[in-house]
Amino acid sequence: MSDLYFLSSNIDKYEEIRVALKRHDILVRFRKRRLQELQSDSLNYIALEKCKIAFKVISKPVIVEDDGLFIHVLKGFPGPYSSYIFKTIGNTGILKLLSGSNDRSALFTSVLVYTDGEITKRFVGKVIGTISLKANGKGWGYDPIFVPPGQNKTFGLLGEKKTLVSHRAHALTSFAMWYNRYKSRKQLLKLVRRQKPRI
Ligand code: ITT
């Protein structure tokens, strides 16, 4: 059984993380928690602080994630305030703010942080896509209005393919490659220590 946990208030995020990490033979367990998020204009800072709190809660190897949608013509808004803006004006509000705008480019960023109390590592995934003209498809959060690069469909219309091309997918690939190496190294060290003759 895996001892890696993901703490978040968002089960949809967990489902994507579970599917993506399974491709790398990593099992991750979910604890639904709304962790305190410090106000900052840096996703990195918010994610690192959130991870410290998560480790205090669970005392097990843990990952947390913080995302932001940065819309170019709105000078990066909503960025680190994406969660609040989604809850208040939502996708309809974002589409209204962009009505009549030719520049619909937007950056979706995922900052994933791992800690086991010994080591803390940060992984970043980014995709530059566009905001669609109208909401399209299912999904959660900004899925119905974000079109990733190289696709002509919103995240909401991509289904499971989203877990291969999203900002989160990029952060998770870097994490998975590092984590598998880290775990093997730890196991090897344990073995070497056990075999050392005691004098
Ligand atoms: P946490 O408890 O893990 O923080 P959250 O839903 O509050 O979950 P974030 O603060 O990281 O997540 O996300 C900021 C906003 O961006 C939030 O409204 C999410 O719904 C939205 N979002 C993040 N990733 C998304 C994705 O892949 N597709 C659509 N919307 C996304």
In short:
The chain is built from seven helices and seven strands. It is α/β, with parallel strands linked by helices and 199 residues long. Strands 1, 2, 3, 4, 5, 6 and 7 form a seven-stranded mixed sheet that branches.
Walk me through what this model shows.
- By secondary structure, the chain is of the alpha/beta class.
- The chain has one domain (5-195): Maf protein (Alpha-Beta Complex).
- 40% of the residues lie in helices and 23% in strands.
- It is built from seven helices and seven strands.
- It has helices at residues 11-22, 43-58, 82-88, 90-97, 155-158, 162-165, 167-195, and strands spanning 5-8, 29-32, 62-71, 77-79, 105-115, 120-131, 146-147.
- Strands 1, 2, 3, 4, 5, 6 and 7 form a seven-stranded mixed sheet that branches.
- α1 links the parallel β1 and β2.
- α1 (11-22) crosses α7 (167-195).
- The longest helix has 29 residues, at 167-195.
- The two termini are 36 Å apart.
Contiguous helical run count: 7
Structural category is alpha/beta
Examine the secondary-structure arrangement and name the CATH architecture. Alpha-Beta Complex
- Total of domains: 1
Order of helices and strands: EHEHEEHHEEEHHH
Largest sheet features: 7 strands, mixed
Range of helix content: 40-55%
What is the highest CATH level, the class? Alpha Beta
The tally of strands reads: 7
Q: What Rg, in angstroms, do the CA atoms define?
A: 19 Å
Binned strand content? 15-25%
The CATH topology: Maf protein
Q: What's the pLDDT, averaged over the residues?
A: 94
Termini Cα gap: 36 Å
Shape: elongated
List low-confidence stretches.
none
